[in-house]
Write a structure and sequence with these properties.
Largest sheet: 5 strands, mixed
Structural class: alpha+beta
Shape: globular
Radius of gyration: 12 Å
CATH topology: Alpha-Beta Plaits
Number of helices: 2
Helix content: 25-40%
Order of helices and strands: EHEEHEE
Oligomer: single chain
Distance between the termini: 20 Å
CATH architecture: 2-Layer Sandwich
Strand content: 25-35%
Length: 87
């Protein structure tokens, strides 16, 4: 799935925190900052792990303020490995 999170989500350790949460729940994929100030993530894994990452992403780390949250279901990819932060 593709997730877009908006609000105060850059400069608050959102990406590194999401990587920790995703790895803890065995979710593959990546997360990156977008030029418009949002954070974008591609997630792939078991439903229970995905749900836990999504629940976390709805609020993010303590200093984040999430005001936008969108999820788009897409075709699974075989090239998504261990969860990474993209620069």
């Amino acid at each position: 799935m593709r997730v877009i999170v908006g609000g105060r989500v850059q400069g608050v350790s959102f990406r590194s925190s999401m990587r920790e949460v995703a790895r803890r729940h065995r979710v593959n994929g990546w997360v990156r900052n977008n030029p418009d100030g949002s954070v974008e993530a591609m997630l792939q894994g078991r439903v229970d792990g995905l749900n836990r990452v999504l629940d976390w992403a709805r609020h993010g780390p303590p200093s984040a303020v999430v005001t936008e949250f969108r999820v788009e279901f897409i075709e699974p990819s075989t090239d998504l490995g261990d969860f990474q932060v993209q620069l």
